[in-house]
Design brief:
Blueprint lengths: L5 H10 L3 H18 L3 E2 L4 E2 L3 E8 L2 E8 L8 H8 L7 E5 L4 E5 L10 H15 L8 E2 L4 H14 L6 H15 L6 E2 L8 E4 L2 E4 L5 E2 L6 H4 L10 H19 L3 H21 L7 H12 L3
Parallel strand pairs: 7-11
Antiparallel strand pairs: 1-3, 2-3, 3-4, 4-6, 5-6, 8-11, 9-10
Helix pairs in contact: 4-8, 5-6, 5-9, 6-9, 8-10, 9-10
Length: 297
């Protein structure tokens, strides 16, 4: 019997009491999926932030079965992987949209482990390869702009206005411009070093959101790859700008658009931190503070 790992169960139940039913039903769900695809587990079961990954023997050879908890971010993954067909991405062997289950090729567990500048460039190059024409039915980043703007306003208010008005205004201006973006190509939507694995054919992405939009959206997470501690805010901004240039060149996007996207996403994440209350002064928090205050000044 396969159950949801404790780490994932705790994470899901922390934010959503309704997850209990999915967790309790998972042994039956996983059994039905494995039987339908004639798969046999043959490795350690792993858990991500919203999914269980089961290494299997399948009629197609070594593979993994990924079963996701129902959430908005899982709706476009199968279609995106099918569209990319293994070019810069993990190869999709089969999918069951009703159960949110994917049968994927098995590649090395080795995630991106190269020097920082090289890693940022690899991420940008992969995004350029993934930027293929998108089907009309795919979810567009531009469609999230109104909700994104409202989230920024709400979080700023509920957190007690921790950020200056000029910082909020700059982020909202970027979000509004993204709402007018007419990009018609695919973007990963959550690309970072942990979502890049090594296959025999080279580096490939996993866990895409399946979105349509500019690769600049993914710049903040790639520019955070193996980020060293900063001596001060000025050094942080200089390093961020240097990384933005590496990313922009590799991904084929304008440096200024990348810079604005990094700023808007840093502000969004920072406000979420403040809204939660007792904010630990982590490295990520320091990075977001410095970027929100100085990147566009």
């Amino acid at each position: 019997m396969i159950t949801v790992p404790d780490s994932l169960a705790a994470l899901l139940l922390r934010d959503n009491d309704d997850a209990r039913q999915w967790i309790d039903n998972f042994p039956h769900l996983s059994r039905d999926v494995l039987q339908a695809w004639e798969c046999e587990p043959n490795g350690a079961i792993r858990a991500g932030a919203v999914a269980v990954v089961i290494p299997v023997r399948s009629p197609s050879g070594p593979a993994v079965v990924k079963i996701s908890y129902p959430h908005l971010g899982s709706t476009g993954e199968a279609e995106a992987l099918d569209l990319w067909n293994g070019d810069g991405a993990i190869r999709l062997l089969d999918s069951d949209t009703a159960r949110l289950a994917l049968l994927l090729e098995r590649v090395d567990d080795r995630s991106l482990d190269v020097p920082p500048d090289q890693g940022i460039a690899i991420g940008g190059q992969l995004l350029a390869r993934l930027a293929v024409p998108a089907p009309a039915r795919m979810h567009h980043l531009a469609d999230t702009a109104d909700e994104w703007e409202q989230q920024i306003r709400d979080d700023q208010q509920r957190a007690g206005h921790p950020l200056p008005d000029r910082t909020i205004d700059a982020a909202i201006e970027t979000v509004r411009d993204l709402g007018q973006d007419t990009t018609k190509t695919m973007v990963h939507g959550d690309l970072h070093g942990g979502n890049i694995l090594h296959a025999a054919r080279g580096w490939v992405v996993i866990d895409p959101k399946g979105m349509v939009g500019t690769p600049a959206y993914d710049a903040i997470t790639m520019c955070s790859y193996r980020r060293p501690p900063a001596a001060n805010a000025e050094a942080e901004i200089a390093e961020t700008n240097r990384r933005i240039e590496i990313f922009s060149d590799a991904a084929g996007v304008a440096v200024e658009l990348t810079r604005r996207c990094v700023h808007a996403r840093a502000v969004t994440a920072l406000l979420w931190d403040f809204r939660r209350g007792d904010v630990p002064r982590t490295r990520n928090f320091e990075f977001r503070m410095h970027v929100s205050e100085g990147l566009l000044s």
